[in-house]
Design goal:
By secondary structure, the chain is of the alpha/beta class. Helices cover 53% and strands 13% of the residues. The model is unreliable at 1-17 (pLDDT under 50).
């Protein structure tokens, strides 16, 4: 078990990046109605674990976590999960989170970034704040669309600087987003504020301004972030994270226009039930094989053919959930992507063979099956081979409308529902061959360069 002021996994001084992360996790968080607030799970991860992973993905490290309330439970959690953090105890956490920022800043001993354990950000927001060269820079949001504006700390801005900060501020230009990057001088301002009986983090900012120092503003301008103070805000944060995770950058038309409207809701259920991304991959693969088995019975039962087609489309929807769960829980990995890719190829082959069996399994079915199997395997192979060989992304295809796996499964599903398995097999093979050519042409041109 980690002890306070010890690094759990011992980071050497030479490996320390420039900015240290300081996560304030000392408060009691009574409004959330959940034991230690930093251990509240939101979209599959404890708030503290999510904050640590967000900072790491943004390039921040090492990371200091300031604890006070329920320190023993947080310490046990850190030890059990292997979080690479340094725990620092703030015995005066009741004075306010400014006292925790002071303790964390002292432990950092260099330029540091302050965030709250109960704030949910995307790594891009953290990276944006880190770009500020100011001695004290505050993340603000001039277009808040995800937080509770009434509860948020307000800011007034002039020429890219914060000139006033308070819970009640009228007029105001935005809200404090709960991220700040600080030079060591901010620690001394916190000491002076605390000496005058002001222990809040807002008091530190106000002290800085009162001393005539510049408090730079970094505008997140509508970036998604949530301050999780209540159960309702925790639920809102989960929905936000999962819906944004459902915006796959490489989505095909079917995924974007059909599947994602259902898959994100399933992903939310998977996350709340505690499923890992790989477990969801396994569920999707199992459902695909089951759909193939039902589809294959279509030669004897039209009802099985229709049911199999519907199951194929359900499997296609679930197929997108593992990526959503991985992105929403910050657990995306190359290992998971590899597993998903391999199982997708096995599932594709099983579905095509099922169509051939549903078509009667005669000579004509096997003749149509062979090129369909080759073509569907070549579609992802062209992309993988180009990127492995040249070390850069595959260029955009010649025709923007793509026939990827989402469209392929929809054709199989429609073939089952329409009770035309042989025609569906032929269409899948033909369109897959066209997609191979669509990808191969720009890849060949790019390889010449």
């Amino acid at each position: 078990m980690a002890r306070f002021r010890e690094k759990v996994h011992g980071v050497t001084e030479r490996a320390l990046p420039e900015t240290v992360g300081v996560i304030l996790a000392a408060g009691s968080g009574t409004r959330l109605n959940h034991g230690p607030k930093p251990l509240k799970r939101v979209a599959g991860r404890a708030l503290l674990e999510r904050a640590v992973e967000t900072l790491r993905l943004a390039g921040v490290g090492p990371i200091v976590v300031v604890v006070g309330h329920a320190k023993e439970e947080i310490e046990r959690y850190v030890a059990a999960t292997g979080l690479e953090v340094e725990l620092v105890l703030n015995g005066d956490f009741q004075l306010g989170n400014g006292s925790s920022a002071l303790v964390g800043g002292r432990a950092a001993g260099r330029r540091f970034l302050v965030t709250m354990a109960d704030h949910v950000f995307e790594p891009d927001a953290v990276r944006k704040v880190l770009t500020s060269p100011a001695a004290f820079a505050l993340a603000v949001d001039t277009r808040p669309g995800f937080c509770d504006v009434e509860e948020a700390t307000k800011v007034r801005l002039e020429d890219g600087r914060v000139v006033a900060v308070a819970r009640q501020l009228d007029p105001c230009d935005g809200v404090d987003a709960g991220l700040a990057v600080c030079d060591p001088e901010v620690v001394f301002a916190a000491e002076r504020a605390l000496a005058e009986g002001e222990g809040s983090w807002n008091a530190v900012k106000q002290r800085w301004l009162a001393e005539g120092r510049e408090l730079a503003a970094v505008d997140l301008a509508g970036s998604p972030w949530v301050d999780v103070d209540t159960p309702a805000e925790a639920a809102r944060a989960e929905r936000l994270l999962v819906r944004r995770a459902a915006r796959g950058r490489s989505d095909g038309l079917v995924s974007r226009r059909l599947n994602r409207y259902v898959s994100w809701r399933l992903s939310l259920l998977f996350l709340r039930a505690g499923f890992t991304p790989n477990a969801v991959t396994g569920i999707g693969f199992g459902l695909t094989l089951f759909a193939a088995g039902v589809l294959a019975l279509g030669a004897e039962s039209p009802a099985a053919l229709v049911a199999g087609g519907l199951l194929v489309q359900l499997a296609s929807i679930v197929d997108g959930c593992d990526g959503e769960v991985a992105r929403a829980s910050l657990r995306a990995s190359l290992r998971g992507a590899f597993l998903d890719t391999v199982l997708d190829r096995v599932g594709d082959a099983a579905l095509l063979v099922a169509l051939a069996l549903a078509a009667g399994g005669g000579t004509s079915a096997w003749i149509v099956l062979a090129p369909a199997l080759v073509a569907t395997a070549l579609v992802p192979y062209v992309k993988a081979s180009f990127e492995a060989t040249f070390g850069r992304p595959l260029p955009p295809p010649a025709v923007r409308v793509r026939f990827g796996r989402d469209a392929r499964l929809l054709v199989i599903a429609l073939a089952g529902v329409a009770m035309q398995p042989l025609a569906g097999l032929a269409v899948v093979g033909a369109l897959s061959l066209l997609e191979v050519a669509n990808r191969l042409a720009p890849a060949w041109r790019a390889s010449a360069g």
